[in-house]
Amino acid sequence: MDISSILTVTVPVSDQERALAFYTGVLGMEVRADNPFPLGRWLTVAPKGGETALLLASWFPRMAPIGGLVVASPGLDELAARLREHGADCEGPTDEPWGRQLLFKDPDGNGFVVTSA
Q: Cα–Cα distances in Å, from 97 out to 69, 101, 103?
């Protein structure tokens, strides 16, 4: 059988509460799961209506930040302003041959590329 979907992507974070505030408050994602887990807390977020969730995992202290996770937003300018308002490291939006994009990092240095939806 072939793989049919991507369910969860692990995003290493140092503080789950801080990450939760960023991903829900700044990026507008919703909590999908928040349950006890043998290593701490199984905490996932996702865009409203999205199929793939992000696991905000604090139990991988030596895991390097992820980079280049591509997501979509219909409002790049508004998102860039909100990211800057909250002190996030971001670049753009810029017009590229393939479309508009915004680059940003979360508080733990995980890198994202946002394209216009």
A: 19, 10, 16
